[in-house]
Design brief:
Elements lengths: L5 H19 L4 H54 L7 E5 L2 E14 L29 E6 L5 E2 L8 E4 L24 E10 L2 E10 L8 E14 L4 E6 L16 E7 L1 E10 L7 E12 L6 E12 L4
Antiparallel strand pairs: 1-2, 2-4, 2-8, 3-7, 5-6, 5-8, 6-7, 8-9, 9-10, 11-12, 12-13
Length: about 325
């Protein structure tokens, strides 16, 4: 026996179950293909829009790196040349590679001279202060007393050199590189052995040496180390080297113990020159042209940052 209204209820339930089963099957193949095509079109449209700010950021970062390298080179070279021994600049070219060398001054002072108009008296020995307070040419000097304190950093006995009357590389009786890392007859440097405070200055003890001449202003220098700026476009780098022995001939090869600091990479070219300001002993000017290059991401063209600067070098005695 059928109850009234039962069949429509069963038909309605069956229809709902059928629709639910259809929904459980998910997308059809055609719907999936259409979705993938739409996603691909959106990706192709959005990719350039996303790439542009990324490329712009990377280009700006690269330019900032190049500019920062140029600023570091400019500031450090200016500082090195301010600390350079007057008339110690020498430049050597090896193919595209160029090397600039100076001697770094640790401290500077003035020494006493013998009495004016009196006969020169060479000290017999370095004992108590007396006639060996002065530093005179033609004497085997082993100690002297400075006029007042030294200007600069604390010297390092046993390592630093005393240099008197530097007139320039290759200048007779005035070449600070003459003799290399040893004191030789006719040279202008001697090894500092000790330095102690004195009532009106500092008492310096040196390896006994006969200096050929003294500066008119009675100035002397305590030199710490040679410094080389090694610019090598072939290796695309600019390197500062120091802590190696003084060489009579400007070196192009450096031992493993030499301290080195890379100052710039991506070096495309560099030119370093030195112009003496007149006669020997009157300082000069260092000219630097440095070009750094990197490839731009968007165009593939080289992006160049260049430094062109001149640096005055202190006058000598």
């Amino acid at each position: 026996m059928r109850h009234a209204g039962s069949e429509p209820v069963r038909q309605s339930t069956w229809a709902r179950d059928r629709r639910a089963r259809r929904r459980a099957h998910g997308f059809t193949l055609i719907e999936m293909i259409v979705s993938l095509v739409l996603i691909s079109v959106l990706a192709l449209t959005a990719a350039p829009l996303l790439r542009l700010p990324m490329v712009a950021w990377m280009d700006a970062s690269r330019r900032a790196d190049l500019t920062q390298s140029i600023d570091i080179v400019h500031a450090k070279l200016a500082d090195d040349l301010r600390r350079a021994l007057p008339n110690s600049v020498r430049v050597r070219q090896v193919g595209a590679r160029v090397l600039l060398e100076t001697l770094e001054v640790r401290a500077v002072g003035r020494h006493r001279a013998g009495p004016s108009g009196a006969a020169q008296v060479c000290p017999a020995a370095c004992t108590a202060p007396g006639n060996n307070d002065a530093l005179e040419p033609g004497c085997s000097e082993s100690c002297f007393t400075s006029l007042g304190p030294l200007d600069g950093d604390a010297p390092v006995p046993g390592s630093d050199w005393l240099v008197v009357n530097a007139l320039g590389p290759g200048v007779a009786a005035g070449d600070p590189y003459f003799g290399g890392n040893v004191a030789v007859a006719g040279g202008i440097k001697s090894r500092l052995l000790n330095m102690t405070p004195a009532p009106d200055g500092n008492r310096l003890q040196i390896t006994a040496h006969n200096f050929p001449a003294i500066a008119a202003n009675r100035q002397f220098y305590l030199v710490a180390t040679p410094v080389t700026w090694d610019c090598d476009p072939g290796a695309q780098r600019l390197t500062r080297r120091w802590g190696y022995p003084i060489n009579a001939v400007q070196p192009i090869a450096f031992g493993a113990a030499t301290a080195a600091s890379p100052l710039a990479t991506r070096v495309a070219s560099c030119t370093i020159g030195y112009t003496a300001a007149g006669s020997s002993g009157r300082g000069g000017v260092v000219q630097l042209q440095l070009r750094l290059s990197a490839t731009a991401l968007d165009s593939g063209a080289p992006e160049v940052v260049e430094l062109a600067a001149s640096y005055p070098v202190s006058e000598g005695p």
